[in-house]
Amino acid sequence: MAPIVALFTILALTLAAVVALAARGRLAERWAAVAIAITTLAPLPLQHLEYANGRWALALVSVAFSAGLVFLSLRFDRWWLLVAAGIQLAATASYAVAWLQPDLMLWSGVAFRRVLWGQLMIVALIGAFEPYEIQDPN
User: Fold this and answer.
1) Burial code of 55-88, b = ≥16 C-beta within 10 A, e = fewer?
2) 103-114: pLDDT as tens digits
3) pTM of the predicted structure, to 2 decimals
């Protein structure tokens, strides 16, 4: 798949997930939609901040998103939030690997995080419809 096609596919998945979570979800899903939107938009002004071959500002955004998903998964009884938190924690850990092994190929880490983001968006899309399958008061 061409890189531009992959990028637009991930962006389309992200937009679909945010819209589905906000429109169909309940409180947990709406908070997750806000977190995803912030995580998607926050790196735009932070792209240039690098130190020691690593983008520390992007790593901090990833850590904050991981913490938010862990908090949401502990606060609300949603299976998909727990899965999303696990996926995001793996993506966050990949920044540490990039700093510990700076001689590794840069683009393999980027590709790994893109794949994980795509998986996270698929889980979020599925999770957006979960509250309507069960009768949950939240």
Assistant:
1) bebbbebbeebbebbbebbeebebebbbbbbbbb
2) 666 667 778 888
3) 0.83
